[in-house]
Amino acid sequence: MKAAIFTSANTARSEFLEIRDAPRPQLVAGHVLLRVLACGVCRTDLHIVEGDLPPLRPQLIPGHQIVGEVAEGATAALPLGTRVGVSWMGGIDGDCWYCHHGMENLCDKPTFTGYTVDGGYAEYALARADFTFPLPAGLDNVHVAPLLCAGIIGFRSLRVAGVEPGERVGLFGFGSSASLAIAILQSWKCEVYVVTRGESHRRLAGSLGATWVGKEDDKPPVELDRAITFAPSGKVVVSALASLRKGGVVAINAIHLDQMPAFDYDKLLWGERQIRSVANMTREDARDFMKLAQELAIRPQVVVFSLDDANKALRAVKEETEHGSAVIVP
Question: Which tens digits make up the pLDDT trace of 234-247?
Answer without folding.
Answer: 888 899 999 999 99
